[in-house]
Here is the input.
Amino acid sequence: MEFIDLKSQYRAYQNEIDARMRAVLDHGHFIMGPEIAELEGLLAEYVGVKHCFTVASGTHSLEIALRALGVGTGDEVITVPFTWISTAETILLVGAKPVFIDIRASDFNMDVDLLERAITPQTKAIMPVSLFGQMPDYDRINAIAAKYGIPVIEDGAQSFGATRNGKRSCGVTLVGSTSFFPAKPLGCFGDGGALFTSNDALAAKIKAIRTHGGERRHYHPMVGMNGRFDTLQAAVILAKLPHFEWEVEQRNRIGARYTDLFLSRSSTLELSNSRTLELGAPAVMPGNTHVYAQYTIRVPDRDALGAKLKEAGIPTAVYYPKCLHEQPVFAPLGYKWGDFPEAERASREVISLPMHPFLGEAEQDKIVEEVLKFSNLH
Here is the structure.
């Protein structure tokens, strides 16, 4: 059994992927070839924004967004401590200070009730994370940000394809960022990412920063980086893109089926907004669709469950076993254990089960059976 079955995906689209990659090998434009512009146009249309810029990774995309917004030394950026390190790492890379606020137990996303009190005169951006495949309440986040004149960057590395109130992830804030890491909902065969915006001035800065700060060849008015996306990787995504809506539908179906199976077969199961759960399934927030980059449950004896599932031939993963404020690199920020109780509790309880568009019902039944067998014994 595969945790994320990229081999089945490749076999399903092999002819299209091979043909697209072969075309790049034939024309030889391996950097900024024609596939880059083609892909950016299609992605911008899909998200519903004016501009898309593909970049070398999801980490590059966040750093470029911050630099394009002028965030730097002495500034603060509000984000969450329960996420992959790139979210806050990029804030340090531009010389700014990450300011953490806690998450909600229900959906693992930013607790918007805590946002306004974290804003100071030094706050120059808000960077919520659309974790595990669904978005937080961007209507409220954007309203608070507008009140103080602060830009919002969506870290949508795990949520590409999801919607909130009919709007797609990466198209709900001033700038949206995603990742094309192979395991993401829309992945390539290496590192990659993209930025999305409808702001023309911001788009011009993003485009320049991506290519060494150059507005045109041999004219560099700002500090940039080598953040370009490889043409071969663009070719892979172009081959996958026609199938993406089907994959999103499958992710929604399989994720909902997981939850239905757990709820129908267990009298102790609650959705993850319960305070008394023995085993918690992810809740989908009103107005949201969920692409289930991971299907993540909560179990007090998480490590024991992971070991038991491994014995049964079922792979699992933990996103994330430590919060960012526990990492040594963020120690100078001065946070301590207990500052973010929901994030800390989640980091000790979450475990992700196999999740991908090609997961069979028999495999899913076995996974649920083994999880509930463990849960009933503990």
About this structure: The first strand starts at residue 51 and ends at 55. Residues 175 and 197 are 5 Å apart (CA to CA). The first helix runs from residue 6 to 27. Residues 273-277 have pLDDT under 50 and may be disordered.
